[in-house]
Amino acid sequence: MRILSLGSVGTDVMKVQAVLKKIGYNPGLIDGVFGEQMQQAVIQFQKNNGLNSDGIIGPDTYQILERFLLGYDLYRITPRDTLYNLAGKYYINVNRILVANPGINPSSLRVGQEIVIPYSMNVVDTNINYTYEIMERDIKGIKARYPFIEVGIAGQSVLGRNLYYIKLGDGPNQVFYNAAHHALEWITSVVLMKFVEDFASAYAEGRSIRGYNVRDIGKQSTIYIMPMVNPDGISLVLDGLQADNPYYEELIGWNNGRTNFSEVWQANIRGVDLNHNYDAAWELSKQAEPLYGIYGPGPTRYSGPCPESEPESKAVADFTRTHNFRLVLAYHSQGEVIYWDFMNMASPKVRKIGEALSQITGYALDETYGIASFAGYKDWFIQEYRRPGYTIEVGLGKNPLPISQFDKIYNDNIRLLLQAALEVC
After folding, report:
1. Predicted structure pTM score
2. Cβ atoms 55, 39 nearer than 8 A
3. 12, 26, 66, 291: which has the highest count of C-beta atoms within 10 A?
4. 99-115 per-position pLDDT tens digit
5. Whose CA is closest to 11, among 34, 40, 41?
6. Cα torsion 256, 259, 262, 267: sign
């Protein structure tokens, strides 16, 4: 990570602000700007942790901050330690230590043994701009706290970023949720990551969520989640165009000479709209491009030179082909609408499930039109498998939606995410 000091600006500053606030400091507004109030919070943090209190976040400060960023501590057992005492020291219950350390024997701790001790705070911050790097760290933190979940890599983006998936439960009914095909729609990644953490926590503790028994869901279904399909595009939108980007000059040209990608860019790093890159009436999408002023790579709607030309869309399609998904959800923003059909291929049962999901969320059940009707992931899934596939458009306004909408979006969708895992068609 880069060194942060007074005047630094960026998503990494925002993440540190959020963490400092969670652990009891006052960095001021969580706005990604390293101001004087944040500097004072960093100085206080450094003093409390025996560091040089210079107000600069360098390697030594990061080393201490890292465990708070991840949400757990690696602790080495000493002669007088008991799990009960350690739980009191960290303000958590013993069960959380047991969950994070499967196979540990509470009555026979080994001196020198290293164990994971989760902090009482959540890992996923829902008040920050959500980058690939933040997501990757959150996945690591959640996996350490809840080792019973499975984390894997379905493929890589154009620039080599991992396309992570997370597996929840082990029941026979397989479902698949993905998010952020579009770069401006990064808020949907936060929705799925928050769901992963909440589901794992409730599963570990035997709790219900909104009346749903999470362990029962895990017995009936296996939920696969790919929280960020387009990490390169999201990095471009949130962190800007970096000088070492191999597509630097092309991107500026594709963006009509602009270096600001934060308001218009939906595509991947090669200017291909990933949700127009699937083999479902792809030719119709291609034919419609000139009607929308699209003649090649750009911010949106360009469907690429051929279906699955992009490693991201191919990875999602291949991941689907190698599983037996009975239902899929593709998360997008915005509009508070659920799209359910493709060229009249969806059955009445699919519509009935869509109506139930619509009632749960309050989102309208609708069908797409124009170029948006072709070559999307949901379209391809319905065409290939004749099973329920839904595009969920969260929130209202103009993309990118502000993170201030997160609480309402999540409240609208948490029951949908649980109910969809129980639908069988």
Report:
1. 0.97
2. yes
3. 12
4. 999 999 999 999 999 99
5. 34
6. positive
